[in-house]
């Protein structure tokens, strides 16, 4: 009789623990979905920016015309305006850091220098200089992928991120 009561008590406790684990897993899942929606507007802006870049790359660069047809009107200023738009769209160093760099440079993952570690960044800056650090960030070095793993970043945006991380680490950059 006592073994039967022990078995019932065990099953009741086991069932309660399993129910608690299932409820905890559901709550964690809901929190994860909720937390991922915070950065949705930035992601939408990023996708719009990338879509614009692709559309610019697909623009017609020449026209085939038959004999006797007049040349289409082409505004010379349009090409200059496209360059201005790209400059206006370039993300700041802080924004690039948040989207691509901080995953490794906030935690020191894979021996990445931690943003804010003045000694590490100062020695890198003294050893390599700004241009080589930017080149390493653009092309990748060691475990670091090119452009921090975000191939849509422009050279200017990568440079902004490097200058930002150096500044946040207390290194005065001769830009």
TrEMBL record:
Keywords: Electron transport, Heme, Iron, Membrane, Metal-binding, Transmembrane, Transmembrane helix, Transport. Coiled coil: none annotated. The chain crosses the membrane at residues 14-38. Residues 70-95 are annotated as: Disordered. Residues 75-89 have a biased composition (Acidic residues). It comes from the Bacteria. Residues 88-169 form the Cytochrome c domain. One of its GO terms (molecular function) is heme binding. Gene3D superfamilies: Cytochrome c-like domain. InterPro entries: Cyt_c-like_dom, Cyt_c-like_dom_sf, Cyt_CIE. It holds the Pfam family Cytochrome_CBB3. This is Cytochrome c5. It comes from Aquisalimonas asiatica.
């Amino acid at each position: 009789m006592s073994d039967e009561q022990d078995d019932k008590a065990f099953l009741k406790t086991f069932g309660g623990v399993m129910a608690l684990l299932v409820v905890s897993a559901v709550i964690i899942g809901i929190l994860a979905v909720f937390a991922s929606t915070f950065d949705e507007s930035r992601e939408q802006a990023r996708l719009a920016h990338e879509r614009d870049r692709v559309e610019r790359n697909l623009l017609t660069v020449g026209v085939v015309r038959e004999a006797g047809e007049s040349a289409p009107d082409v505004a010379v200023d349009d090409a200059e305006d496209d360059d201005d738009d790209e400059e206006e769209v370039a993300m700041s160093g802080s924004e690039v850091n948040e989207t691509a760099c901080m995953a490794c440079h906030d935690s020191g993952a894979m021996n990445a220098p931690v943003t804010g570690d003045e000694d590490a960044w100062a020695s890198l800056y003294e050893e390599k200089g700004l241009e080589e650090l930017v080149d390493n960030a653009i092309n990748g070095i060691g475990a670091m992928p090119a452009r921090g793993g975000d191939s849509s970043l422009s050279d200017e945006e990568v440079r902004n991120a490097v200058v930002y991380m150096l500044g946040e680490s207390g290194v005065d950059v001769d830009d």
